[in-house]
Design goal:
Number of strands: 10
CATH superfamily: NAD(P)-binding Rossmann-like Domain
Largest sheet: 8 strands, mixed
Shape: globular
CATH architecture: 3-Layer(aba) Sandwich
Structural class: alpha/beta
Strand order of the largest sheet: 3-2-1-4-5-6-10-8
Helix content: 25-40%
Order of helices and strands: EHEEHEHEHEEEEHE
Number of helices: 5
Number of domains: 1
CATH class: Alpha Beta
Oligomer: single chain
Distance between the termini: 28 Å
Radius of gyration: 16 Å
Strand content: 15-25%
């Protein structure tokens, strides 16, 4: 399968790329700096230099792919507006490129999803990352209002263990109450890749936790 990955140089994007190649997929990676991509010389990886906030750049990277995985993250910038700056261009670019399947990395605590966080994590998120989570919530709504076959991933706090495959996938609109815990970045990547390459969780927001 041909996949496009945004954020491929980041910690989760790198996990997605490694797992995708291990599973036999081909990947187009949209990056700002090719030197930061360890797999840049792999013949299974096509590197497109550009900006995920540019619809033209995303369209160039998405053409010919069956799915797009957006694994962009703000790093340590808790006031980042990256999510809102990229959501609209990504949707626009995918429509222009004829790509239906979109898997979008967000976070539990974005927008009104704070109601499903554990009380401790909700309080910590609001105190430290209030602006970031508000920005992510606006971006999530842009994705959810689109006509793409989207899935929005809502991981809890991150850990750095290896891929286990043993994690919970909880629909945001389900009946279970508040959710806490941690999830390893490798397992988040596992979910993003499995969702992108299957017909599961289409037009659903999914909480991820161990």
């Amino acid at each position: 399968m041909q996949l496009t990955v945004l954020g491929a140089t980041g910690p989760i994007g790198q996990q997605v790329l490694r797992q995708a190649l291990a599973a036999g997929h081909k990947v187009t990676a949209l990056v700002r700096d090719a030197a930061r991509l360890p797999q840049r010389d792999d013949e299974r990886v096509t590197v497109v230099i550009g900006d995920a906030a540019s619809a033209a750049d995303v369209e160039a990277a998405a053409r010919g792919s069956q799915a797009l995985i957006c694994a962009l993250g703000p790093g340590r910038d808790f006031k980042s507006t990256l999510a809102t700056r990229t959501a609209g261009p990504v949707v626009q670019a995918m429509a222009a490129a004829g790509v239906e399947r979109l898997v979008w990395l967000s976070a539990l605590g974005s927008g009104d999803t704070a109601r499903r966080q554990s009380r401790f994590q909700a309080g910590a998120s609001k105190l430290v990352m209030g602006a970031l989570m508000a920005d992510k919530g606006i971006a999530d709504e842009t994705i959810a209002r689109s006509d793409r076959a989207w899935t929005i991933a809502l991981p809890v706090m991150f850990g750095n263990g290896g891929t286990t495959g043993d994690y919970e996938r909880i629909p945001l609109d389900g009946t279970r109450g508040r959710v806490g815990g941690r999830i390893d970045r490798a397992d988040v990547a596992d979910f993003l890749l499995s969702a992108a390459t299957s017909g599961l969780w289409v037009r659903r927001r999914v909480i991820l936790t161990h």
